[in-house]
Design a protein that fits this description.
Blueprint lengths: L1 E5 L2 E8 L3 E6 L10 H7 L3 E6 L16 H15 L4 E6 L1 H13 L3 E7 L11 H4 L2 H8 L4 H6 L8 H13 L3 H5 L5 E6 L10 H5 L5 E6 L6 H4 L1 H13 L14 H5 L2
Parallel strand pairs: 3-4, 3-5, 5-6, 6-7, 7-8
Antiparallel strand pairs: 1-2, 2-4
Helix pairs in contact: 1-11, 2-3
């Protein structure tokens, strides 16, 4: 296990590979652990980092750090302490919101971002996310396979206050409108069977600027990286392989990853 002390708090992370840096940010249920497979794939070309956010996994539990903005500060301090320059971000749910907040403050530090099952507004979050206990969320959102149980084995360590604090922050401050104006190439990915987060409407999709693109994975739920790792990893690697600054809409012309998973 790797850990670093940031502002007096223990922050747990894991790293694999060599190359350009990519940072994986987990969601409301789980920890760095469910990124293991994606990290292994990315590590063939990247230095892959996965971080436990405050209140999750083996990172310090402290309600003073649970807001989305303070979690983004964690990422900034981590990158500075580790001497990491411009990064690619891959965030899921809460991790994507933290990524939006990070880009809002330090957009020049992000080359591109992949946001998975991220609510673009408070109303797109199912009410059960706000009212259920962590065991209930695990039961509801996972497919209860042995692979899922292993990937989410740290979920019971979560401080429930992290969920309520971040959702309150989303309700008070919708980050997406400002994020979309910053020009960071971004791919939004949604599991078509996710019960927790609503897929954006076609009207919203049609209004996206060219540097933002959305792809729906119809056979995935809340955890596409667990539900269908081969499909998810192929999409991720194709996105990461785009030239710096290229629009993710170029993926529309690349059907190879879709054909390979039929």
């Amino acid at each position: 296990m790797s850990a670093i002390i940031l502002d007096g708090s223990i922050v747990h992370y894991e790293a694999l590979g060599r190359g350009r840096p990519i940072v994986f940010l987990h969601g409301w249920v789980g920890s760095w652990r469910y990124w293991i497979n994606a990290m292994q794939i990315a590590s063939t070309s990247f230095r892959a980092y996965a971080i436990d956010l405050f209140g999750f996994g083996d990172t310090t539990r402290d309600p003073a750090h649970y807001s989305i903005e303070r979690q983004a500060d964690l990422i900034n301090h981590f990158l500075a302490e580790m001497g990491i320059g411009k990064v690619a971000l891959v965030g899921h749910g809460l991790g994507a919101l933290v990524g939006f907040s990070f880009v809002k403050q330090w957009s020049k530090s992000v080359d591109r971002m992949m946001a998975i099952n991220c609510p673009l507004e408070y109303e797109s979050v199912n009410a059960r996310m706000r009212t259920s206990s962590m065991p209930e969320l695990i039961e509801w959102l996972s497919d209860r396979t042995p692979e899922s149980a292993s990937a989410l084995s740290d979920a019971s360590k979560t401080d429930p206050l992290t969920v309520s604090a971040s959702l309150a922050g989303l309700q008070a401050n919708n980050l997406f409108p400002e994020f979309r104006s910053l020009g960071v190439p971004s791919l939004l990915v949604y599991g078509g069977n996710d019960p927790a987060i609503s897929v954006p409407s076609q009207e919203k999709i049609d209004a996206f600027p060219r540097h933002i693109h959305q792809i729906n994975l119809e056979n995935s739920g809340h955890f596409p990286m667990i539900d269908n790792p081969n499909q998810f990893n192929r999409l991720m690697t194709d996105f990461l392989a785009l030239e710096s600054g290229a629009s993710p809409r170029d993926l529309q012309m690349k059907e190879e990853w879709k054909r390979r998973v039929r």
